[in-house]
Every structure is written in C-alpha cells, then in structure tokens.
Here is the input.
Amino acid sequence: MDMDRAPRPAEDVFTAVRRIIAEELDVDPAAVTAETDLVRDLGASSITIVMLVMKIEAHFGIDAGAEEIRRLVVVKNAVDFIAERVAERGRGAGPGSRQGGGTER
Here is the structure.
C-alpha cells in the first residue's frame, strides 16, 4: 500500500486539505474539489483563509509566506504547493535542509 501512495503524494495531500477545509468551513467534503475557489465558491473570508493556512501549515509541518497565501485560495494550487514543500522537506531532511534555497532575507 505504501508503494501505491508514494508516486502520488498530491492525492494524500488533497484528501487532508479537503478534510481541513470541510471541517473549518463546515461544508460537505464533496463540495471541495481541486477547482474550488475558497472565496468565490465557499464564501471564505480572508480571516478564514489565514486560519486554514495555519491549520494546513501545522498539519504538514510547512510554512507559507504572505505571497504564497494568495495563490492558496484555489484548492489545486494549495495542494500543489503543499506537495512541493513536503517533497522538498523529504529530500532535505536533517541539518542543512534549507541548503540551496537561495532566497533567504
């Protein structure tokens, strides 16, 4: 089973993101698709978006900057971003995992 999940981490990410969104916005998980726009389709406020991002960050152990949050309003963009960050963390686990980032300020 782990082998089935390994090539498709975005599917696992989508399932978790959908659950978090459904719980936070009190909507049926079936209403959350890859194309769902949290603001237009589900009526999420900017405060709700920030709270969702915080829950997602805590769940996946990642950080999203203010610029990235704007992209995360559409579920597919959020899933792609999270899957990328989780994969980066997996490749660079341990000391020096930020090596090669190049954009520290």
About this structure: The helical segments are 2-5, 9-25, 46-60, 66-71, 75-91. The radius of gyration is 14 Å. Residues 9-25 form the longest helix (17 residues).
